[in-house]
Each structure stands twice: as C-alpha cells, then as structure tokens.
Amino acid sequence: MEALIRDMGYAFRRLLAQPGSTLIIILTLAFGIGVNTSIFSLVNGVLFKELPFKRGGDIVEIRQTAIKAGVDNTGASALDVKDFREQNRSLEDVIEYHFMYFFIAGQSPALVKSGIVSANYFDFLGVKPALGRSFVASDDAVGAEPVVILSHEFWNSHFSADPDVVGKTLEMNGKANRVVGVLPRMPQFPEVNDIYMPTSGCPTRGDAEFINTRSSRMMSMYGRTKPGVSLQQAGSDLDMVAKRLHSTYPADYPAEAGFGVKVLSLQNELTKDIRPSLLLLLAASLLVLFITCTNVVNLTLAQQSRRQKELAVRAALGADRIDIAKKLLVESMMLALAGGAGGLLLAYFSLDLLTSFAATFTSRASEVSIDGQALAFNLVVSVATGLIVGLAPVFGKQDIVTALKEGGAHATLSRQRQKVRKLLIVGQIAIAFMLVTGAGLMIRSFVALQRIDPGFRSDDIAIATIPLDWNKYDPGAIRNFVRELRNGLSGSPEVQGVAFTTAYPFGSGIGVSLGTAVISFDDRAADAGGGKRVNFRTVSGNYFELLGIPLVAGRYISDSDDENATPVAVLSRAMAEKYWPGESPLNKRISPDQGKTWLTVVGVVQNIKGAGFDKPPIDEYYVSYAQSPSQSVNVLLRTKAAPNKVSALVKAAVARVDANQPVTKVTTLARVMSDTLSTPRMLSQVLSLFSFLALTISMVGVSGLLAFTVSQRTKELGIRMALGAEPHAVRRMILGQGLVLVAVGLVLGMVGSLLLGRLLASLIYGISSSDVFTFVLVTFLFLAVSLAACWLPAARASRLDPNAALRTT
Amino acid sequence: MEKSAVITIEGLSKVFETERMETHALSDFNLTINRGDYVSISGPSGCGKSTLLSILGLLDSPTRGKFVLNNMNVANLDASQRARIRNKEIGFIFQDFNLIGDLTVAQNVELPLTHRDMGKAERRERVMACLEKVGMTQRAEHYPAQLSGGQQQRVAVARALVGKPSIILADEPTGNLDSKNGDAVMDLLAQLNGEGVTICIVTHDSRYANYAKRVVKLLDGKVVTDSLAAQVEAA
User: Which Pfam families would you find in this protein's record (chain B) (predicted)?
Assistant: First the structure.
C-alpha cells in the first residue's frame, strides 16, 4: 500500500510536470470514453435493458395476421382476447390495449390520450398505483361506473399533484369519470398515455354488440410466457388455439384472408426498427474508442521513449519488469480514470439530447439514463483503457544496456517501438477511414432520400389537426363544421387555398394516418382478387389541386361529390394498375364494406409517397369527405404565413364555428416530411461528428508521430543534410514516410469499409454500399488532410540547421 | 608547377550574437588550401576550429569576408545551394562517425550519391570501390552497431570519398578511437592524400596533426602559425 501511494505521488508529480500532454491525454480519453458511455446508455436503455415490468423479458405480443389479405396485424376482437386468454397453455395471462382521445371540459378545450386496457393490465405489469387502487375485474363489466387511473405526469400537470385526487371526477366528452388511482412515475407501455380506463370506458369497446362481434378487431394483445416456456413453444401453443378458432368460426376467419397468429418478443418488437441504427452507433463509438486508445498509447509510447533511460536505470538498479509495469500502470490508470470522469460528465450533459433522439422512435426513451449499468460500463472502459495504455509500452524486448545507450550519446530510434507506433497509426487511419466512409454513405443516402419526389407539393402547406367530439358530431354536423370552417378560412387574405382530409401524406397516429379497408369489386369474385386490404383517405374538393397531385385519368374529387351524389372514389395509379392492369378502372365499382356501399371510380391520380421516402408507393384510394364524413379532421392550408400566425388563424376560425373545439396540432407538411427523416438525419449527424473527430485524432496522431520522428532523428537529418540533402529532399522524405502510413491505412480502411458497407446496406437508400463517389471523395479528403498533417513536421525538418542538428545527441 | 586553390578565404569573420553580447569566433581570417594539400588545423578549445570547419563545410555562413570554393564564391548562398555544393565538393568525416543506425554500411556510404542523378548500378559500383579502398567490403551489409569504432570510422571515410569531393573535411576523426584505431585511420587518410585527395583535418592532438603536410594553428579566431609539417617538426 505504501508503495502504491508512493507510485501515485510520483505519477501525480510526473503528470503535473507535463500539463500540456496530460491535458491532451485526459481530454482525448474523456471524449472516447464519454462517447461510449453516452451511446451505451442509449443502446442499453432502449435495446438491452429488460422491460421494466414484472418479468419484462417474457412479455410477448400476440399478433393476429391475415397474410393472404396482405395484413400483418389485424388487431384482436374482444372475443379473440377472451379465447386466447382462456385456451392457451403457455401464457400466464393475456392483457389487451388500445388507445383513444377524449375531450376534457375546462376553460381551454383539450384532448387527453387514454389507454383502454383490460382490468388485469397493471397487475400483469406488476405496477402498483402510487395513490388509490388498480383496476378490478368489475370495472370491465358493461355498464360499470366510469373510472380512470391517472398517469403520474398527468396528475402533476392537470391536478397539480393533488394528494386527494382519488375520488374526484374528470369530465370527458360530457361524461364524469371517477379517479380511482394515480400511477407511480414509470416508463409507460406500450405507449405514453395521459390516463387509463378499463375496457368499459371506451364507447366502442364497451358496446355489447362490439364485444360480441368476433370480426370487430382493433385491440392489441400481450401475454407473458410461463417460466421455462420458449417463444417457439408459445407460438406453437397459440397457433393451435388459432386453428381451433378458425375452424369453429370460419365466417370470422375467412380462409381466403389467410388468418394466423404470431407470438413476438415485445422487447424486440418495440425496438426492431431502430435496432440496426443503434447497433451501428454502438459499433461506431467503439471504433472511436479504439482510435482514442491507440492515440493515447502512441502518445505514451513517445513519452516512454524519452523516459527509456530513466526506466533502464531503474531496471539496472534492480527493478523488474513488474515493478516498472506497476509504475506505468498507476500513471495510466490515473489518466484513464480522470478521462473516465470527464467522459461521465460528457455523457451526463448529452443525456437530454440522446433522450429526445430516442423519443422519436421508441417509447423506451424514458429508460435512457446514466444508471448503475452505465456507470459500471464507464468504469470498465476506463480501467480497460488504463490497462491497455499502461501495459502496451511494457511489452516487447527490454535491453537495459541498449536502453541506457539509447538515452545517452548514441541515441538511435528503437525500431521495435517505432514499428508498433506505425502499426497503431495505420490502424487509426484505417478505422477513421471506415467511420468517414460510413458517415459519407449515410449522408449520401440522406441526400438521396431528400431528393426523392414525393409526388406532391409540400411548400407553403400548413396542417391543423382538429379531432371532433364523437358525442357531438354526427355526419351532418361534421359536414356543417367543415363547410363553415372552410368559409371562415377562405376569407382570410393570408390563405390561398383550403382542403380537408382524414390523413395527410406522411402523417402517423390516430386521426392523421391512412385508414384501411377490405375491398370488394363488382367486376370479379372475392377469390379472384377481392377481399384485399387497401389503404384509403378521405379528402375534400381542392385536395389534389392544393397538393399538386397530377391527374392521370378521369377527374378529381370535387365539392359536388356530396351526400346527395353517387359515392365516388379516385384511385392511385398503383392501385389502378394492380387491380385493372392494361385497362381503365373508370366507372368500375369498389366496396369498402362488403357491398353495403359501392363507390364508382371517377379518376386516377399519380402515386405519392406517403408511408416513407424509402417505401414504394402504396395502393390507395380516395373518397369524398362529404360522402364519408369523419371526426378526424385535418385542414390543409396553402399559406406563406408563419406557423404561429397560422395557428392563431386556425384556432380563431375553429372557435368561431365551435368555441369548445380544440385544435391539437398545427404544423407544416414540410416539417412532417422532415420528421420522417429524423433517424437517418440523426444517424448522419452523429456519424459525421464521430468521423470528424476520428479523422482529427488520427491526423493529429500522424502529425505527432512524424514530429516525434523528426525530433528523434534530428541528428540523422543533420547528417543527411551535411552530406548534401537539400531542404526539399528532407521535406519529401518526411512527407513520404507519413504518406506511406496513410496509404497503408487507406487500403486497409477501404477493405474494412467495403465490409462495413454490407452491414450498412439495410440503412442506406439510393446508393450502393460501395458507392464509388463516396469512396473516391473520402480518399481524396484523407489524402488532402494527411498532406496537411504531414506537412508541418516535414517543413520543420527541412528548416533544420544541419550544423546544429549534427551537435544533437 | 603552381597548385590550384580549392579553398580561398580572405578577411572572413564569424560573429555570434546573443541578446547580451557578441562573440567573434573568427576575425579577419585568411586561408588558402590547394589541391592535394593535407592541412591540419589545431588550437586550444574555443579558438574557432569548429566554426572554421563548419564554414569550410558550408554548414554555416560567414558574417563577412570572401570564401571561394573551387572558383565559386560560396560565402552567401541559400540552404539549397549550399546543400548541392556540399554534396558535390565536400566529404565529411566526423568525430563520432555519424553513421545512420537504421542503414547498412553500404547504404550509409551510398547516402551522398542518393542526392545525385545517378543510376543504382553506378552508385553500387562506387560504393563497393570505396569500401574496398577502406577494407570494409565484407561488412557492406552490416549495421553500424555491429562494427567497432575503428571500423565505423573507416566506413565514414568511405562515405566521405564516395562522392569524389574536392576536399575532405575531418573533424577530430580520431577523437572517439583508441590509439591503434586512431593511427589506422590517420594512415588511411595519409594514403588517400598520397593518391591526390585534398584533406583538411581539425584536431587538438599534435601527434595526429603532424600526419598533415601543413599545420595551421589558431588562437582566438586568428591564424597564429601556418607552416609545413617538416618545419614544425624541425622547430
């Protein structure tokens, strides 16, 4: 212990004696470790950590599918939930979930998002309310007293954390709901909601006819496997249940739709879309850590070269390799732990950024934190870094006699160390090249995505979302609301055009995204192409004109397509070509409700991108708002006014029509489209940051190595100059040595990048993973930056005074 | 027959300036070295020997005065011009050999030729000829660390010879050698001079100074004696 304290004191004095290099090393390590701690926190919180519920890792999603109808998730009906719950043998329990918006009364109209859950929901998750009680079985009964449980956040914001809230009422859509509990602060599953209510609280789910209609499917089902039951076993078990149901109720599970059931790990399902991106970030951050470590090892090796004589003297006086290793290790550990502490600060300050990034793609964002696991990771990485940095210089042959000479008058370079340093530099450059190429590919892919023509105009289009109260708005009232709102907005000088839709392009979520319907055709039998699920959206007159969607055939939907006219549909070109290949679909008829209503096709419009820039155009059809009124109202405005002005304008216009009607969201179409690119954008930005830093660190490494080489070879350079080497020849020689390392690193980096590209293939769009332009550009970038990095030490070498250089030792 | 001058120095001064003082290393210095000469320059420490050798070797520039090397005025040239002339006209032998540890004996000897437009085969031929002249052919592929001090200095002599310079400048060439090896190196230089090579050696050892045909003694940056070695011995 005494020896350790002595070594620490010595190391501390040594580090303080060279504050510049000590600071550089600590900052380099802080950056490398900090980046890794941050990314680990993100990846751990989102991907690796078990769901924070009772045996969260065993929770599964039970998903009904109708493969032949092209439906990956049909949802579950109340009877489905009941039967799967009662007939399975592999699950402990089954819960159900869906959500809907309610209006709450008050001074300013507002919406709350409510999770509609089975009574066993919170017991299943192992969540005990912070106040009051959980739901009980009787709460699910039809006609039960309306009750709600508040989320912790809603309790704080709406009830100011009133400790006596239990028993009070919350009026929603004109109905009083008694508060029976408040949840603790917790990550919500599977989505964030303001409140929760039992199934009886939902006007649809609580309806007796809906409950008894097996084909009324809209809920999600979850279960938890019994201990020892695998996902495959649970799948087989539920498959048997499903087959039994299909044979017992063939009308509700038509064979032509291809009904089936999948049992999926919820943990994987919640994060499957973002998993490749997060793993890519984790890999990139580990590469950055490698670069920072090798850079620090290189710096340390340079310092050790200067200390060779000191270490040789210690060895000559009896210190063995372990004694010397201990001294070096104490020093490197102090540096690594200081770097680790700095890294922790960096991670802490980047946490908000990471959490908001994670929130764009997963409900698990709230679980991203610098917790015990992140601290442990930070400590492990710091200690491992300290070990690598401290022990790397100790390996290799130690010749005391040579070392003693090397520090003396006959100084020559230690070839062995020089080789190690060169190898490290080559490795750094190769990895930096891989990172820069990866970032380059992501940026090019992002640019390609942005350049995709979505098929409609998005400039100067504002969107306001206005979900109407279903208690108040029947079809007639909706038509009146839309008509009056259109008149109100059209009168404004700042509005050049108005249209309405249930679903705007790239919209997602209830009330803004596409609807789906299983359609029938009057010109063919169901088994000849009918019974297919197709997307649709409801639009008013002027919708196509406002968005500039080109007409291919027939006509657009217009205001004259009202409730008194023949119901019409306009098809996307993709749908027209799919169902009427080589012939005109005009005047053909389709039905979204098994023949109750027939829509006459009056037009075909060009395809638009609506599901994502990188997704192919989808089959879809458009119906008239006046003929199919919906409470999901989205107003599209062509205006050059600023978003805040548009918001005021729409709210005022809505208030003139209905003072109690809230406007939940005002945005622009350009913003919505931009938001869909948030993941590739963030990935490009983070990788660019990593690659910029990796490039900088590796070039500082090359420059530092050359500068060190020049300082170590001053006498040799003096000799060469004395023998006639001209300054430019010396400069060329040093440049050449640096550029050879760079060239070797680039070749290895290219090989690595080609391999990396294959892994990136699923994340890039519009370009090849071995995109020649990116590779050539990055190569030139590296050559240019390398030339600059090597130029400084080379120029300094060429300016050496040979007379003085010859006198150096 | 009158010998032609390889080096002519007239009124040369070298002043080192620091913030506090000026040091006159050489003052109004005059010297002529003819082709085929073997000149030793000696004197006490600080007399200006090394400064003179640096200027003669174009490693340093004089503050003022005339310096003609092979009929070229070389007093005020830039670094590149000095390097080119050094390469062609001057061969160096240093006290501590100054061989490059990472290069083999042959590569060390070849160094001056690498700065000339000369083919590899010709370079190799000249390197081997010089190594043969100093008796180091068998060690061509060895590294300096594998040689004794005397052998290293012989390699240094070969390197000085390989470019066929106008003059060889030797700075205390025996300083790091024992007397046996020192004698051997001096014998080698004498032999080369006998073959017509012009040599200027700086030494503080009077025993080795007398190997030269002409002895120049310096004191405080000025020539105090410039006489033939025979006269020195007679005196």
Answer: ABC_tran
Helices A372-391 + A19-43 axis angle, to 10: 140
Distance in angstroms (rounded) separating the CA atoms of residues A183 and A717: 75
The beta-carbon neighbor of A729 closest among B54, B101, B115 is B115
- Runs of H (alpha helix) within A44-135: 78-87, 121-125
B54 chain-A contacts, CB cut-off 8 A = 803
Find the CATH number of the domain harbouring B96.
3.40.50.300
Region class of A548: left (phi > 0), else alpha (psi between -120 and 50), else beta: left
| Lowest mean per-residue pLDDT among A640-644, A782-786, B199-203 | A640-644
Distance from C-alpha of A91 to C-alpha of A60, rounded to nearest angstrom: 9
Q: Which two tokens stand for residue B87?
A: 């390469």
Residues belonging to chain A with any Cβ–Cβ distance to chain B shorter than 8 Å: 409, 412-413, 415, 715-716, 719-729, 802-803, 806
**Res. B207: pLDDT tops 50:** yes
**Residue numbers of the domain that contains B214:** 5-234
| B24–A contact, CB cutoff 8 A | no
Q: Which of A146, A93, A158, A98 is nearest to A120 (CA)?
A: A93
A640-646 long-range contacts, CB within 8 A, separation 24+: A640/A460, A640/A494, A640/A496, A641/A462, A641/A494, A643/A462, A643/A667, A643/A668, A645/A494, A646/A462, A646/A464
Interface test with A, best of B111, B161, B202 (most A CBs within 10 A): B111
Cβ–Cβ gap B145/A412 under 8 Å: yes
Q: Is B200 exposed, middle or buried (0-12, 13-18, 19+ CB in 10 A)?
A: buried
A729–B60 CB contact, under 8 Å: no
A412 and B80 within 8 Å at the Cβ level: the answer is no
pLDDT 10s digits, A519-560: 888 877 655 444 577 888 999 999 999 999 999 999 999 989
Considering only CB atoms, which chain A residues are within 8 Å of B101? 412-413
Whether residue A301 has pLDDT greater than 90: no
What residues have CB less than 8 Å from A480, skipping those under 6 apart? none
CB of B78 within 8 Å of a chain A CB? The answer is: no
Q: Does B121 touch chain A (CB under 8 A)?
A: no
* Whether pLDDT at A399 is above 80: no
Give the best residue of A418, A723, A799, A803 to mutate against chain B (max B CB count within 10 A).
Answer: A723
Whole-angstrom distance, CA of residue B29 vs CA of residue A362? 87
Contact residues, chain A, for B149 at CB < 8 Å: none
Residue from B137, B8, B10 nearest B65 by CA = B10
Hey, are the CB atoms on A724 and B57 less than 8 Å from each other? no
Q: For residue A394, is pLDDT > 70?
A: no
- The residue of chain A with its CA nearest to that of B51 is A803
CB contact under 8 A, A724 and B80: no
Chain B positions in Cβ-Cβ contact with residue A401 (cut-off 8 Å)? none
Which of B80, B84, B98 is closest, CB to CB, to A806?
A: B98
Three-state DSSP class for residue A179? strand
Contact in structure between A478 and A631 (CB atoms under 8 Å): yes
- Within 13 Å, how many C-alpha atoms sit on residue A543's CB side? 27
8 Å CB contact between A519 and A426: no
Residue B102 to residue A719, Cβ atoms within 8 A? no
State the Cα–Cα distance between residues A364 and A344, nearest whole angstrom: 22
For residue A789, give every residue at least 6 positions away whose Cβ sits within 8 Å of its Cβ, in sequence order, or none. Answer: A699, A700, A702, A703, A706, A738
Angle A109-A650-A641 from CA coordinates, rounded to 5°: 140
* Partner-chain contact A722 B115, CB within 8 Å: no
- Output phi, psi for A726, to 5 deg: -80, 160
Rounded to the nearest integer, the mean pLDDT of chain A is 86
Q: Does the structure show a pLDDT above 80 at B99? A: yes
In chain B, the number of structural domains is 1
